User: Fold this.
Amino acid sequence: MSKGKKISLKIVLVVIALVIVVAIIAGYLYLTKSKDNPEEIFKQYISKINEEKYEEMYEMLDEESKQQISKEDFISRNKNIYNGIDMSNMTIDINQIEKSGKKRIITYKTKMNAAGGEISFDNTVTLNKESDDKYKISWNSHLIFPELDETDKVKVSTAKANRGKILDRNGKELAVNGKASSIGIVRGKLGENKEADIQKIAELLNITSDVINNKLQASWVKDDNFVPIKTVSLNETELKEKLLQIQGIKITTVEARTYPIGEAAAQLTGYVQTVTKEDLEKNKGYTSSSVIGKNGLEKLYESRLKGENGVEIYIADKDGKRKSTIIKQEKTDGENIKLTIDLNLQNNLYNELKNNEGLFVVMNPETGEVLAAVSTPSYDVNKMTLGVTTVEWQEISNNSQSPMLARYLQSYCPGSTFKPIIGAIGLSSNSLSTEDTFNYTGLSWKKDSSWGNFDITTLTAYNGPKNLKNALIHSDNIYFAQAAMKIGAKNLTSGFDKIKFNESIDFDLGLSKSQYSNGDKIKTDKQLADTGYGQGEVLVNPIHMASIYSAFCNEGNMIKPYLEYKENKEVEYLVENAFTKEACDEIQKDLIQVVENPEGTAKDMRVNGVTIAGKTGTAELKVSKDTEGDTIGWFNCYTVNYDTPYLVIGMVEKANTNGGSHYLIPMIKRMFIK
Assistant:
């Protein structure tokens, strides 16, 4: 190393050493100043209140204060008051400091958050310099609140706000504040064979005996106390009768959030549960006994549903007489949320499909009101809100049928229900006409030998020209594969983009995006052909699909779906002129024939006195043409010139075992048969 470099290195090391020394000296001076500075000492005291370090606070008191109150009583008084009012984020602004011999009198303003809102007041504190030349705090109860005397108590009176209801369009209740049964044990009344009885109770409640014993052994429990063990629905009559045969069991009625149609709307309403520590840290306006929406509409509308509890914090004297009010907040009940949902329709369609994995979406195609959003199978939402055991939660969460999944929010391969959309894009872009026909024979076709073993197959041979009308009536895959290739990837993707594929749809609940490809384009002729009949990489969300189909009866305009009921709401379109009016007139006319024509794939959907346009669909779920896989069955339909306009999207999984779209048709048909 050169001499110059050695000198530079020494200079650097010297500078670093000086910086360290200066930092140490500055830190020492700061700490020394803090110990001797009454302002800094008092600020430290306030910070310890926020940190709940009551024992350390006590050590900051002067000797006279310590003679007046023991450490145990000091900790208890401060802790009980501050925790009792849910105090947080205490801050002070010091106005002035007066000197009086060895005393320093600080005048300051306190602000803190508490149950009921922000509390602020002016106060003073005296610090005495004691024999060790350190300032100590002269403490009494006035330091907590200026009007608080030593024998006074701080009281908190609450008025619980009612959580808002979730109602259907007719005011029928989907989520309401109801009653439940609290199962508890009076320890002193248990029979002689306590262990056996506790084990029996545990088995009936689907919990462990350890859970019960831990609750019975809590420090507050006395032999004559009612110890809550588990809350169950009021209608658990058989369970409660069995429990009441055991000595020591007591059942009381408690308030609880309940869901009148339970499983039928579980994924839609979601549920509430008691707040967790994490909830309290993230959200204001809750106490440890509050409930909070965990998913579904309960979570979405939480801020509007929850309301604000009424709280009064006041000072009472030793006889319980009110001296002064610190803060008062009147209670505000939560808002009732009215939905577009029709409870009867929701319940009926759930009962139709409940033993399957599937969904129904029903919408008014003229207004966009979602009348039903059903997902099956479902789960016991009333049990979830009352609290499930670890075993019960594992049973639900590990269920391969995904009962908690809101299927109508996901996206799926649409199969042949996609064909009307292909036709509408082709007609609207003038790249396909009603007169266009394709020449092919048999039930299998491929473009040429370059496709190898890749063939497009269809199920039914039919007489007549291979045109749009006949292809829709017979659900001809080969026609729509060739139609997609004629329309071309550019026209198709432009049409898909226009109707909001690959976009987030503005809807009350978050919808999975629809897509026409895993990337940003249709890459090959094979993919283009598959796209023509709703296979390949196409995925569509059912509520988005309902909006697209609404264009066929709205002169080409896609209605905007919505879920919260609005009186006299103006019609909103998700996409105006998604397709041309002429294209939609043609598609609607053909979809009516899918139902009305004796050869139509949905001929079983014919209802006397009702004109219905519809399309069946089966989507194959497999990794290649040469493998076996599961299938999804679809049936999409809507009424034409009907008193109550309905647009229905129905889907059932495992269609290869239950008949698919033809399994759904009778369920939907019963909507129109009185």
Summary: The longest strand covers residues 173-186. The domain at 346-378+410-669 is CATH 3.40.710.10 (Beta-lactamase). The radius of gyration is 36 Å.
